[in-house]
Amino acid sequence: MRSDGPKASLGLKISAAAGLIFMIAPLLLIFVYAFTTEEKSYQWPPPGLTLKWFEVTLNRPDVWQALTLSLQVAAISTAIALVLGTLCAAAVSQSDFFGRETISLLVILPIALPGIITGIALRSAFSIAEIPFSFWTIVLGHATFCVVVVYNNAVARFRRTSKSLIEASMDLGADGFQTFRYVILPNIGTALLAGGMLAFALSFDEVIVTTFTAGQQQTLPLWMLEELIRPRQRPVTNVVAMIVVLVTTIPILAAFYLTRDGDQIAGSGK
Amino acid sequence: MTAAVSLQGVSRHFGIIKAMDEVNLEIASGEFFAMLGPSGSGKTTCLRVIAGFEQPTHGHIEIFGENATGVPPYRRNVNTVFQDYALFPHLNVLDNVAYSLMLKKAPRAERHKAAEAALDMVKLAGYGTRRPSELSGGQRQRVALARALVNRPKVLLLDEPLGALDLKLRESMQEELKSLQKALGITFIFVTHDQGEALSMADRVAVFSGGRVMQVGTPEEIYSKPNSRFVADFVGSSNILNPDQVSTLTGERRWGSLRSEAVRLAPEAGSALAGTVTTKNYLGATTRLGIDIGGGSIHALVPSGQELPDIGARTGVAFERSALHLMETEQ
Amino acid sequence: MTTTALAITERRPGLLGWLSDQFWRHPGMFVLLLLTPPLLWLGIVYIGSLLALLFQSFFAIDEFSGIVDYSTLTLKSYAELLRPANLDIIVRTVVMSALVTLASAVIAFPIAYMAARYVRGKWKALFYLGIMLPLWSSYLVKIYAWKLILAKEGILTWVFESLHIGFVLDGILAIPVIGGNSLSVSYIGTFLVFVYVWMPFMILPIQASLERVPVNLIDASSDLGATPQQTFRKVIFPLALPGIIAGSIFTFSLTLGDYIIPQIIGSSRLFIGQAVYAQQGTAGNIPLAAAFTVVPIVIMGLYLWMAKRQGAFDAL
Ligand SMILES: Nc1ncnc2c1ncn2[C@@H]1O[C@H](COP(=O)(O)OP(=O)(O)O)[C@@H](O)[C@H]1O
Ligand SMILES: [Mg+2]
Q: Is position A164 within any domain?
């Protein structure tokens, strides 16, 4: 904090600090539990520390399968969301057509409504259309709510990319495709990357919709949910939880660095 | 000789707004042409129609005799200097200038050489590696100019090019643009709402109002022979005489215009027009007097040296008959 | 550089050149083309599914066979909602959502205020990450962390006992209705976890709306002799209200539909989400589950309509 800026009162400082600690401390706790020697309960303080559970986890095929499935689903859902979200953002910011408010609402709806509604709606639609559960039914659900994250990031950047840049490019002899390649893409690229990262993190972590669209397959969050409801291998769960925290932190940090000098990542649109 | 740009009955409507209404213009090759008019009169729209950013609702455009109606901007050999400069923020100055050459797949060394030359032309040699964000407003404009000229377009369009610059920079830039245009022989079309700028820089001026072209002519014609009350009023410093006043002087019932500097003070007796001095503004070498002649007032720009009547005094007004210009139109 | 170039050049050969010209000539068609894939996806996959779900709520399960009767449209499933047991569930969920929203606003406000007003430069980036990381980190891991904290042998009990105030915890747990055997099976536990998981969604909208309050407005207020409390009540809070409402859309809606948190941490009494889950799953009563989902949709519809009137959408 700079000394020449306005001064915060002590009460404000304490309550803000307490709030941040409340947010962060429980996540740090995960890192301690991953090393505990205790197997049967959540005992605190840990009676001892060990690296043993990392090895056990690494040798568990069910964990590996769930992790692989989650990564695949997240990658493909993100790719679809990138295409759909960018198209939507481009259309909405390029012109003032009738009904653009409606389109924004349509994109935001899948996250504005509780996940269970999206989930059960998709499930009943699958059963009406007699679509069997598969990898693709999971992707279908994930891509639907990931669109908004890409859309939010892209729309913010499109707004900052002034219309006259596109006109300048066309004026200098670039047709629509060349303008996209040489002007639009370089200007929105980092925003798309950030949106993609966040979409990936969102999909990798999703459990509520996935419960309804997954059938027999288990994503990593589904594996964890199972463990939360019926704890069987607490130490392995501890390690998996820590891995999940690390895997989701990386794209978030990357997204932050990609957008730091400009619009903030549209975080409220999770 | 074919005109550089020819607009034939061009209209551009936005819903019920007629931004351009039946505009006819012939702009000659090599000309420095100004579009002058108050804000909202349709100048920018006209420029954008020529560049190809707007498509006309009706009418026909030709550029150097070739049909340009329905041709997108990237196929028109016409370049624009944008009001906000529109430099690409992700490219440095040199790559900005070389953009059009890059699209033509010119070899790297060649296009950099051409871009350097263009930067040199606008006195920015050595600035190539900077980012646009590291330049001042005036420098950005020069980069925009170099970028638009590097490819030697047939026509250069400038939208209020000097509007954002401070007074001193504006004056030096006016001269520079003028000499650049002479040296390159490219047709320049520029938009401005400043009549002084239009008159001092342009070979010919088109005066816009409400989406229509009111008058096209040399600065001299526009200034001394306005064809309408609007032009006389907007181009400034002319007195407008109504048909009654004009008919007592000439017998013709027409609107007339009379430049202030052509008006002399005379003894009240024997003058066709006379009135009471209502305002008196000292402007240095000259003084501007407002004289109420009943049914309107007349402004006279007289040398400050002579003895001048006080406010409230009566005076006669005289001028050469040739200085009174009778307008063609009724408005 | 050529000086003999033509005024109008040929279009780029090939399909791309032709397409580019067509798009320029018909900009409306181009926008429509851009919108087609996302609209098809969201319109068919998402809106289609929602409508299908809504449609299902107008059937009812046959009480004797236990099979959904698709031959007659009926409002029976909605009538079912009004049974005391189901009304209980709805009231319980709405009250919980309201309390969680309130608590979230109280905790989030100082953080947002600090971030918007006082921290600068490097600290601002750190603050931002301190908010974003918990916001985006795994939902299940967050719940899991609280399972560890609230467990009988967990850290919270240990803290109370280390401070020799274990009796306070016992006292809290002894409170009827909201207490329980341990925190992890009590309403207090459910509430804490709800607040923890959804509160971060409140911070960014509040911060955004506070950042729009001009600093000199606050200076002007204190220049006019207002005490800090008066400035807060009369100037800052009203201006931050759209942000609080925007944030509350998330905390309220997310709590309303959650079925995992109360299942893992809490008493055995159901929330709407759990009821939906149970009805569509084990009970096989899709029409009732669908009717149940209409409740949050209607509540959120009203909420959004109200929020829109308060101008909260600009703070999203
Ligand atoms: N894209 C547009 N949509 C609607 N109206 C427009 C648009 N562009 C210009 N106009 C209207 O057309 C008229 C002429 O505008 P413009 O050409 O910008 O005038 P000028 O450049 O002389 O100030 C104005 O009334 C303006 O509001
Ligand atoms: Mg052009």
A: yes
Give the distance from residue A269's alpha carbon to the nearest chain B alpha carbon, in angstroms. Answer: 28
Per the structure, the complete domain to which residue A222 belongs is given by: 62-259
Helix (H) or strand (E) holding B266, with range, is strand B264-266
Q: Are residues A84 and A196 in the same domain?
A: yes
Do both A128 and A95 map to the same domain? yes
The per-residue pLDDT for B51 is 94
Cα B109 to ligand 2 centroid, rounded to whole Å: 25
Q: Does residue A141 sit within a domain? A: yes
How does strand B187-192 pair with strand B204-209?
unpaired
Same domain as A255, residue A187: yes
Distance from C-alpha of A90 to C-alpha of C234, rounded to nearest angstrom: 41
> Could you give the residue ranges of the DSSP H alpha helices within B236-289?
243-250
**CB neighbours (10 Å) of residue C260?**
24
Domains and CATH numbers, chain C: 2-56 (no CATH), 79-315 (1.10.3720.10)
CA–CA separation, A25 vs B43, rounded Å? 62
User: Residue A210 — pLDDT band, cuts 50, 70, 90?
Assistant: very high
Whether residues A146 and A41 fall in one domain: no
- Report the domain count for chain A: 2
Collapse the DSSP code of B286 into the 3-class scheme (helix H, G, I; strand E, B; otherwise coil) and give the result: strand
Q: What is the pLDDT of residue A2?
A: 38
Spell out which residues line ligand 1, taking CB within 6 angstroms.
B 14, 17, 19, 37, 39-45
CB contact under 8 A, A256 and C132: yes
pTM, whole model, 2 decimals? 0.80
Q: Which residue of A has its CA nearest to C130?
A: A20
Chain C residues in contact with A249 (beta carbon < 8 A): 133, 137
- Judge whether B62 and B29 are in contact, CB under 8 Å: no
The ipTM assigned to this model is: 0.82
pLDDT digits (tens, 9 = 90+) for C64-104: 777 777 777 888 888 888 888 889 999 999 999 999 999 99
Contact A269/C at CB under 8 A: yes
| Minimal Cβ distance to C7: which of B63, B70, B150 | B63
Residue B240, strand partner residues: B257
Contact criterion met (CB below 8 Å) for B59 and B23: yes
Which atom of ligand 1 is found nearest the CA of B47?
Answer: 17
Q: What angle do CA B178, B184, B189 make, to 5 degrees?
A: 55
- Given a contact cutoff of 8 angstroms between Cβ atoms, the answer to whether A202 and A149 are in contact is yes
Contact check, Cβ <8 Å, A140/C138: no
Question: Is the N-terminal amide bond of C38 cis, ω within 30° of 0?
Answer: no
Give the atom of ligand 1 at the shortest distance from the alpha carbon of B42: 17
Residues in CB range of C99: below 8 A, 6 or more apart: C191
Q: Is A67 in the same domain as A180?
A: yes
Asked if residue C261 lies in contact with residue C245, where contact means CB atoms within 8 angstroms, the answer is no
What is the distance between the alpha carbons of residues B192 and B161, in angstroms, rounded to a whole number?
A: 8
**Same domain assignment for residues A176 and A241:** yes
Q: Dig out the tokens for A11 from the structure.
A: 């009460």
If chain C, 316 residues long, is cut into consecutive pieces of 10 residues, what is the mean pLDDT of each piece?
65 85 87 89 89 86 75 82 89 94 94 86 81 85 89 84 81 78 85 92 86 74 75 81 85 88 87 88 82 88 79 57
CATH number, position A237: 1.10.3720.10
A112 part of contact set with chain C, CB < 8 Å: yes
Residue C249 CA to its chain's centroid (Å): 6
Residue B303 has pLDDT above 80, yes or no: yes
Please tell me whether residues A41 and A77 are part of one structural domain.
Answer: no
Phi, psi at A38, each rounded to 5°: -75, 130
User: Same domain, yes or no, for A45 and A158?
Assistant: no
Asked whether residue A265 is assigned to any structural domain, the reply reads no
Q: Is residue A56 part of a domain?
A: no
Q: How many CB atoms lie within 10 A of CB B152?
A: 18
> H helices within C64-186, ranges in order?
76-81, 84-117, 121-136, 139-150, 155-162, 166-174
